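Exercise 3.2. Students should predict the tertiary structure of the chain below and write it as structure tokens, then compare their answer with the key that follows.

Predict this chain's 3D structure.
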Amino acid sequence: MLEAVTLSKFGKIYRSLGSHFPSRHQHNANAVFRETPKVSSPCRNSVTVRSASRGVTATKRDPTDSRWSLDCPHFDRCAGCVLDVGLDSPPVATDGEAFFNSLGISFQLSTGDIHAWRCRVRLAVRGTTAHPRIGLFERNSHNVVPIPKCRVHHPRINQTAQLVEKVVKKCKIEPYSEKGGTGKLRYLQLTANTYDTRLARKQRYTEAPVQVVIVWNTSKMDGETDMQLRKLTEAIWREGASPIGIRKSIGLTPVMKASRHVATMKLCLPATHM
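Answer key:
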């Protein structure tokens, strides 16, 4: 009998059999296995379970093998990943392997790519107008760590984050401040669309268009807020994508939504010039 299950389903099976399953905070397989992006393959992180004679154990691999190392310059400070070596055998998979082996069932984890697979990310924006910081929070704090060379992000996401940083400086946009709740630009959500059928199949990964979602700190949508948001988005478009006329010709216009505390604006940057 052969059954393939996702990591989340495997966790439910493991817990239902009465064994202790490590929590996300204890043995988080997130280093490279956390939250599969919707635009990526739905089966990139899977567990294959096969029936076997009792006592069979899987072949052990060297956890320091460079093929399974994250090798990210931001790992020591960034809280986005919890493992940097042995990514083919995270602690949760090791525990699962031991459990299934005790039942005489062989266990194999298929990891998929360990670099440049994340196609959707939310980044915090902090710092000052002259020195904005765009990245993830440092471990155990709300200090933002810039991660321009993140090994997990799709390369286009890293490029877009650096482009937005450049535009924030140029347009003198004030980043959000945790202390007083002041500032304007609070978060970015960047999504690389690797399935854009307008591109040739070979170009869909390397030249993926990126959707930029801007989270703006405001209590109301007025003329000033609208002007600042549009100034920022138009600058992002000009710096990183193409003239405004091209945006109109392919039907990509900013979409703005407002709630009580934030305004969200979306635009999609094509691969051109980035």
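Discussion points: The beta strands are 2-6, 46-51, 105-110, 120-127, 132-137, 144-146, 185-192, 210-217, 255-258, 262-269. The domain at 120-269 is CATH 2.40.50 (OB fold (Dihydrolipoamide Acetyltransferase, E2P)).
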